[in-house]
Amino acid sequence: MAGGIFTGANLEYVLRELVHQLENTGDSFLLYGTSSLDAVIEAALLVALSRSQTFVFDGRMKPGPMRSGVDHWSCLLAGEDEGRIFEWSPCTKPGEYDETVVLKYSSGITGLPKGL
Predict the structure, then answer these.
(1) How far apart, in whole angstroms, are the C-alpha atoms of residue 98 and residue 68?
(2) Secondary structure (H, E, C), the chain
(3) What is the chain's alpha carbon radius of gyration, rounded to the nearest angstrom?
(4) Most buried residue among 11, 23, 25, 44 by CB atoms closer than 10 A?
(5) Closest by alpha carbon to 70, among 103, 23, 101, 36?
(6) pLDDT, one tens digit for every residue, the chain (116 residues)
(7) Pick from 56, 59, 52, 64: which is nearest to 40 by CA?
(8) Predicted TM-score (pTM) of this structure
(9) Phi and psi of 55, rounded to 5°?
């Protein structure tokens, strides 16, 4: 998932708003909280994201059983040995500072949510 763009979704979104944002951003993975579990799974299916592309996030480092059939976010964590070889690539060229890393969305008060 390295090199991805983060886009957060409003927890109050109804299904059509969440589907719109997922279609608009072309998300490859979903990381979501347990409070929105059912809506997110339904939205993911509607935009053809499989359960292997969705991960439940909560405050636990070692998960208990997930009722959703999706993986817990902790499965994305590398082990200590693998983590030692990770390296951040420093920005050395002017264009590298212009890469999108976060895509914020409006609340959708006047219609569907919009990327800002």
Answers:
(1) 38
(2) CCCCCECCCCCCCCHHHHHHHHHHHCCCCEEEEHHHHHHHHHHHHHCCCCHHHEEEECCCCCCCCCCCCCEEHHHHCCCHHHHCCCCCCCCCCHHHHHCCCECCECCCCCCCCCEC
(3) 16
(4) 44
(5) 36
(6) 456 778 888 878 888 988 998 888 888 888 888 777 788 889 989 999 888 888 888 877 776 666 667 888 888 888 888 888 887 778 888 887 777 778 888 877 777 888 87
(7) 56
(8) 0.73
(9) -140, 135
Are β-strands 30-33 and 54-57 bridged in parallel, bridged antiparallel, or unpaired?
Answer: parallel
Q: Which amino acid is at 66?
A: M
Selection from 76, 31, 28, 75 nearest residue 55 by Cα = 31
Token representation of residue 21 = 């944002």
Task: Tally Cβ neighbours within 10 Å of residue 39.
Answer: 18
